[in-house]
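Subgroup meeting minutes
Present: P.N., E.W., G.H.
Scribe: E.W.

1. P.N. recapped why we're keeping a running log of single-chain structure predictions: easier to compare across weeks, and new members can see raw inputs and outputs side by side.
2. G.H. added today's entry (999 aa).
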Amino acid sequence: MDNFRKRVSTVPRYVWWVSGVLIVYTLLGFLLLPWVVETQLKSVLDQRLALTAEIESVYFNPYTMVAEFQGLDVVDADGAPLLQLQQLRANFQPTRLVLLRLQFAEISAADLDLYYQRDADGMDTATRLARDWAATAAPEEGEPETEPLDDETGGPVPLLVQQISLENLQFHLVDAVPATPFETTVTLASADVTDLATLPERRGTSAFTLLLEDSAQLTGNGELGLNPPVFDGNLALQNFSLATVSRYLQDSLPFTVDQGRLATSLNYHVDLAGESPDLALDDLQVTIAALTASQNGAGEPFLTAQTVQAGNGSLAIPENSLALESVLLDRIELSVSREAGEATNLEQLLAAFPQDGTAGPDPAVPGPVDGQSPWHVSLQQLAVEGNRIVFNDRQPELPATVGISVDIDISDIDNQPESVFPLSAVVTMDSGGELQLQGELGVLPALTVSSNVSLDALDLTVLQPYVNEYAFLQLDSALLEFQSEMQVNRDEPFAYRGDLHLREVAVSDQSGEGNLVSLQALSVDAMNYSLAENSLDISEILFDSLFARFLINQDGSTNIGRSIRPAATGAVPAEATGDEPAGSSDLPFALTIGRIRVDAAASDFTDLNLPIPFSANIHELSGTLEGLSAPTTDPAEFVLEGQVDEFGLLQLDSLFNPFDILAGTRLDLRFSNLQMPPLTPYVIKFAGREIRDGTMDVELVYNIEDGQLSANNQVVLRDLQLGDRVEHPDAMDLPLDLAAALLKDGNGVIDLEVPVSGDVTDPEFDLGPAIRRAVRNILVSIVSAPFRFLGSLLGGEGADLDSIRFQPGRSDLAPPERQVLQQLHAALLQRPQLALEIPLLITEADRVALQTDLVAQRVTARMDAAEDNSQGSLTQRRQAALESLYADAGLTPSLDELQAANTIETEITNPLTGEPLASEQLDVQAYNTDIRNRLIDVEPISEQQLLALAQARYANIRQYLLELEGELAPSRLAITDRQTAELDEDGWLVMEFGLGTSG
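Output recorded in log:
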């Protein structure tokens, strides 16, 4: 013990001081400092931030200057974790202070869990902690000045960290702002930085690997310097799931990205030493693979993409340039669908995006900031390969599916004014048809397009479901083709120049009644449309081999009418918005068509609404319309010619303004040499007769002036032969044989004019019934007054040729009657089909006349036979003859009684005395007349005598007509049944002729 004390006492005092200092330093470093740090850290977190911290251990080696935290756990007031750190280590090198710099040999952290959250109000963890820290700060007078961490030379504090190592740092992110909170974890698997320094021109290296959810990772490596701040390196994002972004935005997007992986890589150079930052990115590669997106609530994706790729891009700031070598859209399929009664899924998607309810002005294109270069954006090639658009429409009764494949190639794209880019595109329809486009495209300062476009054999039968919506028609075939040039620029919103062809059109009736319309080709040649000039010019329109079938069914309906679907009731017409369409012009629309041509057209017409089905065929129909234009007041001429059945001819010559038909139109339609027997069904319906033979010419001349129709229907029938009668409820009850005979001229021709007039603007006006009424009125007028019609053939208003007169009991022709017969003879020569019907005229007046003649003959004969015929006066001899005949007839009363009855008393004056004398005297005239009348009354006249008189009259008429100049066949003078008549005002008998048909 004494030795120990002696040795201690011999130790120099400074040694003890040094030893004491070391002991105190050691205790302070190993024990006190860790305790103070732990205590202060907990206290500060609790007092300033209301956080609770737990530290497993704090280690500090005052000799190696190594500090280390173990097991740090920080939670908030609610017990939610904020930070969990397994290990944090720093190795400071104090010896480098002699070089006037701070230097760490190592800073490392491992197994860090950092929790970051943004609540529904938008408050995030960092902002909340900063707010709490500021709220608990001690009040100070004035604002503390913040001094930069610079050394005395004005530069940054010299700092060097030789190695920074981070491993397994996990950042737990929670965002409660979306309605559906978003959670994810980002893991910094490793990060290594060497030689991180603020020393001039000292550059270090860095490398990191960041792990994202669903196996995605972001890696980077490069060089970095802080003085000056310059960074170089590359970044690569691999296998990033776009479903993560979709999940974060699920409450604001109406669709979901089901799958899709993003990969991108780039090299970067950042220089912040200058007045403005210098940023350069190159070798930029972006790829999106296996992308699918679905509308919310829908099963099938509306978008799929095999590859979306941008390659070899570069970005430079402040040069403000962005360049891409290529953008490839490979095998993208867009599925557009529409359910019954709904909008398309894309329309629903657009409508479902959140709207802020405001409509501000269109965003202006940002221009360059003062002192900066304008942006130059370029893309060497945009390629769209193997992309498809599929439209599934379940709105029509028959669902429609339309699919197209799209390939587009655009090169040398940039954002420079007046730049144009070569453009080529091919669009292929699944159903058939290909659209090709070659040209140039420009977008600045306005859209410009200059291209050649061709469409080859587009199959229009894919439109069948939409045809079904409006008509019961089957689109069996139709191909659309065109070759054109299209222009769009600042001066021309849209211009089209080219040809258009519609080929192999065949439309049938869904009821199975066969082909309805067919067309070999509809060609529109040299079409020139300009939206700027609001004009359309067409060189020629050709209808090649157009065929149409028209059928009237048994119930009177037509195949055309039956093929049109009834309009839906309750449909509300769209209201005009008042907005002018884009590119509309104030100029009036101008249309010019050089020629419209119809070549080899045909039509089949069938009418089953007749007692006998009728069918007619029109073929080889060709015509032209020259020089059509609008606006114009000059009508266009349309000429058409074709064949009807085997030997008929159709000709049309018309002048009309198709844009104002009612203002002025002339139509001259002629049918020549139509065979009449096929028209029997119509004649039966109209007149109840068949037609055995004959031909027909029809000329229809219609003129319309200011809506007023003045028409003349000229019908010429040749060799018409009517057949048997056929009962039909709508047929006219008229003697058509007679009408035909009256109308036929000497050549067997019927020339009939049917004038029709009316107001075509009147909804009640119907041309067909008007023509039928006019024909009926004409025929009724003719057959009801046939002789007046015959008289009209001789000129003037028509002579009355229906009768002649005879004196009772006589058969001779009086001179006035011979004149009538001559006129009748001339009319009959003009109508060789007519037969004159001459009746046997027998009347009671004839009997009386014959009786009177016979009594007079008897009186004369008795007077001539009397022996004393020379004695006495003629009156005495006639009285004697009458009395003799009366006595011979044994009539009563007696002659004495007749004399007594015809004796009159007379008063005379005695000439000598002047006295009145009474005397009785026979009235000889009355006595003779009484006897004669009594003899007439009993004079027998037989029927044979009357018939002989009638026959004599017929014979005289017949002989007179046959002897007149001009051959009149005897067979055309027919004797008919008896006819009776009364005496006319002149005491003559009127014989009324009849008319029939000969042969």
